[in-house]
Protein 1
Amino acid sequence: MKDYNLTHLRELESEAIYVLREVAAQFERPALLFSGGKDSIVLVHLSRKAFHPAAFPFPLLHIDTGHNFEEAITFRDDLVKKFNARLLVGSVQESIDTGRVVEEKGINASRNVLQTVTLLDTIEKYKFDAAIGGGRRDEEKARAKERFFSHRDEFGQWDPKNQRPELWNIFNGKKRMGEHFRVFPISNWTEMDVWQYILQENIELPSLYFTHEREVFFRDGIYLAKAPFMAMKTTEKAEKLRVRCRTVGDISCTGLVLSTADNLEDIIREIAATRVTERGGRYDDKRSDAAMEDRKKEGYF
Amino acid sequence: MTATEEADFSSKGYLNMQLLRFTTAGSVDDGKSTLIGRLLYDSKSLFEDQLDAVKRASVQKGGEHLNLALFTDGLRAEREQGITIDVAYRYFATPNRKFIIADTPGHIQYTRNMVTGASTANAAIILIDARNGVIEQTYRHAYIAYLLGIPHVVVCINKMDLLDYSQEVFEKIKADFNAFVAKVLPGEDLRFIPISALKGDNVVKPSQKMEWYNGSTLLETLETIPIDQDHDMIHQRFPVQYVIRPESDKYHDYRGYAGRIAGGIFHPGDEVMVLPAGIKTRIRQIDTFNGPLDEAFPPMSVTLLLDDDIDISRGDMIAGAGDLPKAASEFDSMICWMNPKPMQLNGKYALKNNSRDVRCVIDKIDFVLNINTLEQIPQRTNLAMNEIGRIHLRTTKPLFFDPYTVNRQSGSIILIDEATNETVAAGMIL
């Protein structure tokens, strides 16, 4: 008898395409949050698939902390050109300059938390009613409770204890004026699924994900990249090592891992063998046990 | 190859694994969180930083051994109160399958959460504390698994270590459970496994203490349950989700109907009927980004191109021409109420079914069910949170559906309170 089973990657792909099409059908002004990281790159790929042969019906929105890896920005601009996408940028620097937020000081200063204000301001400015994100439930414990369609009140806040039940594949995107939704089409993907999918689909990634030589320093069990705006303690010493990113975010909170993996197969082998979670290398999650939950309630990605 | 051996996840085979979604049901203290922790721990799906965090928390709380249950607590309030509030989704993989667990809490808003978790599950694990045997809640769990149409049920009789791993205890509970489910789970794929989640017996590794048990461990069971028949492969159902019209010169006349196949196998050339228009046409092409397909089946997301130019929009249904779904604007449904504000007889709600949005009025409550005894309580005028009942409703426009027992996608509905926009009920059309 013929086998009518989809592989796990095809089933997850189909689910994500379904969710993206629901967004286009249920919302008037959606946007796709694009960070230059692998998850949002996969989202762009899925969006191209969902609306083929038409262009995907939403712009990319990048919340720019100004503390970027150059490679990520170059990659972003190339991708926009290649797929003829529309790119909008919300600038954290601008939020600082206009006094909307105050820059953190000290050795652990990061613009990660400040992004939330810029993100919410940008959503309000363009009147977006849905922001599509690459968040996954396997990433972090607060995210394990996230819905595909996640409601945000008019202050952009998430109320984790009072979420709408989500049943079958029926998504309720009804809202009042001024409220919006965060939508997570790859909720059910794991880090391994994302990498396997990138391999299967031959999706292009920024060079940061592959091994390269970089000046790094060691702090609290994590390698961080040396950069002009990264304050270092006197005891910390930069050294040149072969590293790669496991996630790509703002430089100040993206941990690098020692690695010689220069192709997708090697990266997947490395991830299969690794004993630390993906976000274990994220400096932003180390602030407290509920760091992610607290940021998400306020409107973080 | 066992789950714990090193696996090369990049090789071809691991790109082609099956996905099994399951839900877990148990009463408070049946050891559900411990069981999930055990599955993740023994299948090596937990990472060092997660382990460290739980080790630290276990010591802090004064526990003797590693508290596996702590792996499943997500929100701050849950960690503080030591309870689970909301459905949480967990992920793990073995070289044979990938798994998604809908982890539903044992007490607060129990029914609402279990119904939510069960709605997408291929399998349900029902936990029974061997010391207590089959209790009222067990009936409730079995009934919800049945009501939500979960095709496979695995009953795990837990804490066998506390009863000397006694075969007699196991057989007694199995007989009690079978006696009850003869009523609600007829013909269901039903299995029983004696386990100790705490000690790890028969979860991932076979127990050395229960040689009388010849069956599979829980993980082997989850790895081998056949799931290829879990979708309706007979009745062709394609709810139109979105119309694709590229405004470009190259695709000037392209008009594609995007959606996810809810039932049956579609081929180019198949004769179909478009509802509600009631017009017959043929499938010209099944389109995807990667090129046209020879066939498409659930749960694939595709785009259908048709032979004739017909006015079709979101909410319409494309179905096999000789095998139509029901088209009706009044019908009976089982319903689970999920909102603190009770359902009112004659109340009006927004309703979603497939991609269709309508409004409805509840014009009859046949009965409310006591799900612990399955007793039908007639003459009620409302339905409170976590209650299940049978209602009759009328809609502003017809729906195109199959009975839920035939098709879990086309036969399901949700109700939405139009004042708050909250999802207030889940319904299974009869």
Note: The first strand of chain B starts at residue 18 and ends at 25.
Protein 2
Amino acid sequence: MKTATWILVFTVLLGWTMNASAGTLDEVKSRGYLTVGVNGQVFGFSMPDDKGVWKGLDVDTARAIAAAVFGDASKIKFVPLTAVQRLPALQSKEVDVLCRNTTQTLLRETTNGLNFVHVNFYDGQGFMVPKKLGVKSAKELSGATVCVLPGTTTELNAADFFRKNNLQWKPVVIEQNAELNKAFFSGRCDCLTSDVSQLAGHRAVAPNPQDYIILPEVISKEPLAPVVRHGDDQWFDIVNWTVMALIQAEEFGITSQNVDEMLKSPDPEIQRFLGVTPGLGAALGLDDKWAYNIVKQVGNYGEIFERNVGPKTPLAMERGLNALWNKGGLMYAAPFR
Amino acid sequence: MNRPTNIQDSPVSNSAEILKPPVTAVGPIGWLRKNLFNNALNSLLTLLTLAFLWKTVPPLLRWAFADALWTTPSALCRQNDGACWSVISRNIRFILFGFYPYDQQWRPTAAVILLLGLIFFSRDRKYWTKGLAYAWIAGLTVMGTLMAGGVFGLTGVESSLWGGLPLTLLLAVFGLTAAYPLGVLLALGRQSRMPAVKVLCIVYIELIRGVPLISLLFMASIIFPLFLPAGITINKILRAQAAIILFTAAYIAEVVRGGLQAIPRGQYEAAESLGLNYYLTMRLVVLPQALKIVIPPTVSILISAFKDTSLVVIIALYDVLKTTQTVLSNPEWMGFSREAYLFLALLYFTGCFSMSHYSRRLERQLSTEH
């Protein structure tokens, strides 16, 4: 009898949770700010600086969403989440969108009831070794001790790679990024494996960065994208087209510096994009100036990339796969019309 | 060997020659002989220890002080052999205050100083009056106002932005002060003659003690929100705080129960024969004795609860441990984890040692043994 009562209570509560889904856009607007799940520990993607101000590529992507919705990139609240917390936090509506270097996979989209929007960073797993080891390819790493972070797909990918190529390996599992780094540079393992974006950062702080090379093999695909919940197509569109607007702005050559001049551009595509010719914003349920606000306040994708992970930062990453489609990369936005 | 041969005047007898004991038997040398070199094995151990200290302590001191850099940028640190305390000094405001708005950080500073001041004054039992209670209430109100703002021209700061040391102290102080009375109540409930109360308390205590704190924190942060209706979110800090209180209370309850069982039956009977009711028996006779007996284990639990607050790291609350780890994942400061963790160790040691020191003092003061 008692159990039955409890089950009833839970069902009612759950049902309530499911039914009460006013559109995310309306919720966000009435709340007055956007809540975004971020990582908080990955330099270049989302991390606070020494003044507690959030910095990074994921953070700027999130700011672009706030700029699109409110016309004000600062109306935003960042919620640092661990790898375990991130999906439940999105499901329980603690955050409106997740910008937390999350890899798009089939099971996450289906079983977890989530939708990944357009990719904002193409990553992949690689290996770094000391030059003096004389290794030129990851396939020569037989018998190597490999430093790796636990609990992520990184460990599993490495295991798959070594098994597929019939190589022996000995994983050295270390919990913290900083400790992993230390172990590798003090020679506890022959090889460090992580996402290429991370390896660059690790190498930047080595005692002698020129003594280490990142091997050419990229053993996994890691398309990192912002995530929203299933079941709210309007909100999915807004987040998706925000990411695409960042990419399209770079393709048009619109930057935070020249966006005001671009308003006078005779190009009809740019006029539609910046809302000089109205229509696109309204279709998303936003202000027609949405893309203008994104570029004005946050910049285009290229600016965000350079600012957070580009050659002038400690990560010193090249554009690679993250270049525009017409420059040899994969960043391709659908037409804005 | 020199033996002192001078004669001393003695009020008892000035004729007999009184010899001082040989210097090898008293004083520092005598102490050394008696304690460190009293047989071959001990002498060997002493020498080995000395050699070990000689090998380790001077290099450590050189690393930590003589060769250390205190405020330089990290690039200089990487060329230097000594400790790099700049990782602390250059990031101290983020480590201590987390996301609290940079230009408002005098507010958490003031709140922490106020809290430490209150704790300092509460140490002495002669201040344990109604006045102190009012001071605490006033102090906590002022602290809350300082942290949250929104009134008297202070800009509002959401609790999700609180971090660093104030968060650690908040979780610890509120966790401990709320868990203690709850624990006492649970212990009394478990001893109760009313079956419903008793069963409820036993179930609660055993359930909570049966799971680790980490799983409670996970439940509070991940599972609990899924059951809440849409749009209602309970603050993350509050959820963690509740988990810590519930957890600590269950342990305190069992310790207090030990104290209650140590009180002889006669005490209860004596109180009853004086006509005291249940409340007065407990308040005046049983609890003062029981709680005094269990001071040492209680303080152990409080100390470990204080350290356990750092587990909120796993639900991504930025307490002082997490803020430090965040600084360490910045490429600029990666690799200086020794210095950073030493700093944290010192911080926690100060907290824990003062608690255990205070508990010993309290035991002495409350002692009624003859």
Note: DSSP finds 14 helices and 14 strands in chain A.
Protein 3
Amino acid sequence: MKNVGSRFLEFVLFLLVLSFISFAFIKLAPGDPVMGMLKADEVVVTEEQVDKLREELGFDKPIYLQYINWMLAFFQFDLGYSYMTKQPVIEELFSRLPSTLTLTATSLVVMIVVAFPLGSLAAIYRNSWIDHVSRLFALLGASIPSFWLGLLLIHLVAVQLDLLPSMGMGTWKHLLLPSVTLGLAMAAVYVRILRSSLLDSFGQDFIRAAKARGLSRKRVFFHHAFRHSLLPVLTIFGVSLGSLLGGTVIIEVLFAYPGIGKLVVDAILKRDYPIIQGYIFIMGILVTVINLGVDASYHLVHPELKRGKRR
Amino acid sequence: MKKIMTMGLVLGLFVSLITACSSSETSGSPSSSEKDTKEVTFLSNFPSETLDPHLNYTPVRAGVAETLVKINEDMELEPWLAEEWGSEDDGKTWTFTIRDDVTFHNGKQVDAAMVKQSLERNIEVSEAMKAALKVESIEAEGQRLTLILEEALPELPSELVHPNTAIVDSEEEAIGQQPVGTGPFKVVSFSPGSKVELERNEDYWDGKPKLDRATFTFNEDANARTLALQSGDADIVYRPAIESVQQLKEDDTLRTDVVPGVRTQMLLYNFNSVLADQDIRKAFDLLMDRNDVIDSTLAGYATAAGGPFSNEYPFALIEEKDGGLDQAKQHLQAAGVEMKDGKALLDGEELSLTLLTYSYRPELPLMAQILQSNAKKLGISIEIQQVENIDEEMAKSEDWDLATYSLLTAPRGDASYFLNSAYKKGGSLHSAGRVNDEELTRIIENLNATVENEERQKLAMAANEVINEKVLHSFIAHPSNVVAYKDSVKNWVTSKSEFYVLTKDLDVQLK
């Protein structure tokens, strides 16, 4: 219970520090949203009008005062309104979050479906043709930029074969191409990590002991070697999950898939401070939860860690 | 053997999954009602985070909402929801007569009171429109709408072409998701940043729209837009990848429109630097061979600029610009620039300049490089700085000399926008370049006090002449608008203003 309490305090402190640092960085970056709000590239505005709006929005106040005002509103569960769309920040972010979560989940499924069998087979049949294929796959995956892979897939699957829609969202068919693009790019990394981790496990004493006990090859692989090899994979998995949830702008743009990444990049370009700040805050919470989940999963796949701690 | 069978089974399942998902779309035969449905999908890169017409152009482009005044393809104003308008006191008070045969999508009659409510909401939510319209109060009586302004604004009818002044039923909720306008199409659903689904407005005041349904979709990537047209996911594609235009033109099932655009790519000079000297500006103007720049940066899809305004406007100055190193050199010499060891020296100091550019329009950094390369031949070194927010950088910093820039100089068919912004003290672009020319200021002041359209155009041309003669800025190119669409699409018109996309006349030939 004490442990949970201290973890919670750490979490709150982390969010406070994160919110202040991000707020300061956003405000210190050059530019503000005023010219964009006034559409200075479309209507005649004067310097006087620009200054007046800056004052109305409180941009002339010291940063710490602006931060205190933001915090006071936050404690009333108010993240403010987007300067560009005039919609509540919470609504804007949560309208994009489900599509980002869906794309994240499906991309991870593609990654697992490709990387786990390929990485395992490459380790089991080391230096065989399948190992060479996995190396080539990893090399290509690391070298091909995801936007180019996406364009290739669109050209092949949507234009030439006419099997799937080239862009947009609405049905599960729309999810396949972006998920495969993201999943394949990630799988290239995981194949190599899993392979080397498995090879490392195969040389361990506990594997030799398991084999000596007469356990079947299947049991030795899945219950001992594979489980042991998952530790580095889980660590990277946490990082991948965080970056996928943070948004995959290039894929979102290419497939016209309106996720949270595109929303935030647009907000950054237009200096839509409330959206940026709300995004950082929500991502801070999500990434913390993911890290806690990854920590918990270590114990799940490796109960020895827990026992070791008790001793 | 068992393993091979399992693998085969998994592979078979995967293939059947993929084929199943395609079969419903491609090989399934449409029902007779679907066969008779006239529908198009329009794909563009227009931003669409909200459908609020007072903040975004999409409702007007998608034919959902309409403005009081519109700009036609001759770039002249014409009545739309307002039948006529006029001012009796040189532009401080304006009276508009609203059409009496228009209803909103929800069946409500459009009268002056509804227009008043819409404009008041417009001013409330959009700081830009509040600044542009300068409305003090609005009066409504029957179909007669009176706008009383804070100061005389002779270009008010032109300002009311702005898509953000679209008239909607502001009593409706969810204006950001489902605005209720007066256009030929009604919103069925909206996914921010993705698509708007539309259906025909059966009671449209200007005749029955030809399409039953339309989808307005968005994709910022030009290559992806081209592929969407080729895969059949889109019927009309706005701005396909410029390098694919030739390939699209060769496709018999597609048509490609290349129409002159009204945007202007330009070179801005900072008058707080050595560019205050007219001869030095003239030299830089000559270093930009318009046709060469257009071929190198826009694959030839643009027209050379003779002045700030596109040749499509009645007040444009059609002038062919020469380019040449020798002439540029002569102007540099006239400005007192000397050549020593291959370097240009002014007052004994090396002529070294800073040029700002930005990547949002990819041709601008390329233009900067062409200028840098040409200037080097005359011994002038140019440092190119690519910035994120060009307006901010130009306004706050004195440490720049030139900037490549892009602007719709007369977005609503009136020259006063650019002239006031760039050359009148206090204008947002003026604060960057600090151009102060008394002759030009007088012309602009005259323009700002003139209501009569013909006289305004004469004054705009006079301003053009001064700008060109004194090379206050250099105007390089007007990029063309490129649209590719399927052969089955009928009555498509590529709007020069880019304000009107889905119209009541747009049609599709059923197979």
Note: The longest strand of chain B covers residues 135-141.
Protein 4
Amino acid sequence: MISVTVLARIVVASVCAACLAGAADAQEAPAPQSQVTVGYLSIEGDPRHQPIRASERLILRPREHPFVGAQVAIEEAQALSRVLRIDFALERIAVKSADMLASALMQAHETRGIRFFVVDAPAEAFRALAGAVQGRDVLLFNATAPDDWLRRELCVREIVHTLPSLAMTMDGLVQHLVSRKWRDILVLEGPAAADAAMVRAFEGSVKKFGARIVGKREFKPGTDPREREKNNPLLLTALNRDYDVIFVADDAFDFARQVPYRTIRARPVVGAIDLEPVAWHWTWERHGGPQLNSRFQRAAGGRRMESLDWAAWIAVKMVVQAALRTGSADFKAQRAFILGGNGFDGYKGLAVSVRPWDQQLRQAVFLATPNAVVASVPVEGFLHRVSTLDTLGDDEQETPCKLHR
Amino acid sequence: MGFVRQALSLILVATLATFLAPTQAVAKTGLIFVSNEKSDNILVLDPKTYKVVKEIKTSRRPRDMHFSADRSRLYVACGDADVIDIIDVAKLEVIGRLATGPSPETFAIDDARRRIYVASEESATVSVIDIDRNKIVQAIKTGEEPEGVHLSEDGKTLYVTSEVGNLVHRIDTEAGRAVQDVVVGTRPRRFAATPDRKELWVTAELSGEITIIDRAKFAVSGTIAFLPPGMRKSDVTPVGLTFTRDGKTAFVALGHAAHVAVVDVPSRKVEFYILVGKRSWGVTLARDDRTLFVANGLGDDITVIDVRSRKATVSIPVGRVPWGVVIDD
């Protein structure tokens, strides 16, 4: 027996009937409401969502599940419920371990007719999921795994990636560095596999936009004096030549936070800290950002909206918009709309849309310090024959994934 | 004798001055008012020289502005202070405040019923304010992020956009609730009604178009798309719009595309694009329809356009993030 916990089920219809009370009596006898349910699939105790702590009580990053992002989008659908005669619902499905994801998903699909799923799981979990859903009429939204291989090698028709890929975020960062003429870069790489993946993506971006890596060093967090060459930022940044910027890849974050101002040269730090490429930021002031941030903070008990929350939010929003624009609760029509290159309002300026080749959501990326969005990329002047957004990440001819052919 | 005559004429001038002062506001000053979201002020400009006559400090984040019917008062929605400031047009100072819902942006005044309808972007409601009692008498539920409001000439119907819902609600003001919705373009922002009262034009910021609503049927009767030369569809983000008094021409500010579109209303064809400043949103025509003022939100300036030649004649530096322009003419 699969252990599945249905933690929350939010049905919008009842709420909306109250909020827009009396609307129905002005119209004719209502047609029956259809239902569109989005499943939210996650793993209990997922280590990616454990808070990063400096010590027991000092939490540096809360890293919560982005479920509230999906919730906010469902609540936004309230007003549409009446016009479309569709009730939108969100069902949270939490499993005990990654290997249970596929069976839980299939059970929700087969017994409860759910066809859209926001998947909050690490990249490795997608292999089994991809096998299980192949050829089925379901659509999965990857809202939390930035790994490039999911878009390039795994390359599955049933998955849309709403979180920007590593290649996209690194391209955005390097565009900004190059536009500032900060071309010479020192790379500090952490011991985690995620750090290696980030550096690989960064190197790709450096090559693409004509920057230069003038030194690359692996660090090892610790205080062992015998390993000071690897754990002391002063020594790690001492190089026989000058550089413009220090790039740090550190998924664990604890080392990265001790790099700025501890370097031998007065150089800015980018990557894991200080100037981070993100999908969303709590200080974004344009394109409706303050309204979305405030809706999210109200729903999340004060927590600030982050990249994963945005990716879960836009996934649900795309489903709702597909229903609105096709005027139907029919899955195939909605899927065709979502995958058909149509634009969605992502609150980041240029409309976001799905790339036909790898089903990555093309979107702007923010380069943010803790208190400000320094730039929204693509940087003006980085041109593309179709969409400037495609200067970020894998363009059609750059990826082995050709889902549109 | 000379002294007496001089004194007399002085008295006369003084009497005349006190006589003229209250009527001057009614007689229209011609002054131009610019609300600046991030300077928390309204700059008052001379209509001929465009020099700043006065800076009026307002509550935080002034945005939409409307005159009372007799033009003695100017109301200003202040988004971060949750109030509408009341400005005395003769004195050019804030003389009072009306409390609104959270984050007021645009509003409409019903002078006859002494009411203000204001969209509260953050609470998904339209607040109905009793002007004389300074009280919110009702909050009408809308879709998320209501923005544009338009009140019918008889005050019985209020139209409101929901930016998130991609809807326009038709609200019965007597019943105090939405009675019908119509689906429009993506991220609908603002309205303008054609002077013949038959159509309502709605800008859809993200789909880069105008949706035209037939008011009698309350149904979409057409769309107008924009594409200035050399621009991409995604750059076009229309927000503000206005009609000439004869209803023949519309001007639409295209936001990110930094142009104002000139539309021939009967044929619904775009005739011309005029280059303006960065993120142009607010557009206002002078009463004689000869001059158009465009607020460039990210240029911190106003572009002045000569309507006949369709040319930008001057740009006036104002405060930070100018939202809109109204003219006492």
Note: The interface with chain B takes residues 19-23, 26-27, 75-76, 78-80, 82-83, 288, 291, 294-295, 321, 324, 327, 343, 345, 349-351, 387-388 of chain A (CB under 8 Å).
